[in-house]
């Protein structure tokens, strides 16, 4: 039987280990932390529960394909609930927009901000649909081995159809005059850790995905995905070893032949898969310093300051499951702070996830579980930051902003608080520069150009 070693029990490592086992490999997964999931994890504390990583379940068909490839049905493992409205968005002037798949509702809300904007909104969604289908068909999931596979007579016209050479925000100026609507349909770039002023217009596929295909939530939380895939993998014979760090990948000639663990033990296998941040793999696990130096010069995505608040008291009716608070009055300025100055904006936008609105089991009946994400720049030796100060500033700003909107959370009622910041991403999750989303997805770092 052929053997395979997988480094890292993030969702990718779990899925590939299960697929390899399904195809006859004897698979062992090594994870430095005590639980599987990586960024895709959970916190449980005295009846309060949090998903620490992704909170949006998009494109369920992709997940369904993964379960199907393992001989399983997704619906046997996940009870998906569609969220509609997908978000509640608070704009700086206290305008509230509930983004929804209800066309008539969207017409009323958009026309109240910019009269006559609804037809433009439909054209924008139509473009997003085109970007979504073209991307999935021709680029997503494909490996481009050489330059001519990426740039050929068939693909070059697609680059223009996908508007890959213009930015998302600039493209939105052709649809909406009001900057509030431009912000409303571009903040989703932050899912990828990108600025809408730099992100490809191609990523309008995100808005189409949410509003047409839907935003979902697995009952019990996003971590159910990890738990069910681990169980499937173990049933297929995969062995998971937690709390064990891999020090290096051993090379024999031109191929990876095994790994060395932190205690010095060496293990050989037919196949080695590193499901870790690529720059980390080259800088720490492989001897190729040339590639490591090249990767260090690449563009990186933003980081984040994350707060997980166990709150005692009544649950605010002003919060839906997903809530976005946009500093659209200083929209461009805030992105310059994050991506140019690599710091926290003076008036940051932020996101609040309140899963008890969908699944009350996330907190005791007299409490609430709130996840707060505040985008911030990644770590840089050239622009060092006082992360403790920025963490404190972000918390105070969020509490103040929520209070101004009538969402009153007294610091005394936050009975437990956990937080994650750039240094945690760097040290606990081995994410280079503390970048929460890894290498950037600009034009020169996607497709054939992706390292």
Task: Please explain how this structure is put together.
- This protein is of the alpha+beta class.
- It has three domains: 3-50 and 222-276, FAD/NAD(P)-binding domain (3-Layer(bba) Sandwich); 81-216, no CATH class; 297-449, no CATH class.
- Helices cover 33% and strands 21% of the residues.
- The chain has 15 helices and 18 strands.
- The protein has helices spanning 11-22, 60-69, 103-113, 118-138, 147-150, 155-161, 168-172, 179-184, 205-213, 223-235, 278-285, 289-296, 331-339, 387-404, 422-429; strands at 3-7, 26-31, 42-45, 48-51, 80-83, 87-90, 96-99, 215-218, 239-242, 246-252, 255-261, 266-268, 271-274, 303-312, 322-325, 350-353, 367-376, 414-420.
- The protein has a seven-stranded mixed β-sheet with strand order 7-6-15-16-17-14-18.
- Helix 11 runs antiparallel to helix 12 (289-296).
- The model has no long low-confidence stretch (mean pLDDT 94).
Short summary:
It is built from 15 helices and 18 strands. The protein has 451 residues and is an alpha+beta fold.
Q: What distinguishing features does this structure have?
A:
single chain, 451 residues, alpha+beta, FAD/NAD(P)-binding domain, 3 domains, 7-stranded mixed β-sheet, 4-stranded parallel β-sheet, 15 helices, 21% strand
Topology:
Elements lengths: L2 E5 L3 H12 L3 E6 L10 E4 L2 E4 L8 H10 L10 E4 L3 E4 L5 E4 L3 H11 L4 H21 L8 H4 L4 H7 L6 H5 L6 H6 L20 H9 L1 E4 L4 H13 L3 E4 L3 E7 L2 E7 L4 E3 L2 E4 L3 H8 L3 H8 L6 E10 L9 E4 L5 H9 L10 E4 L13 E10 L10 H18 L9 E7 L1 H8 L22
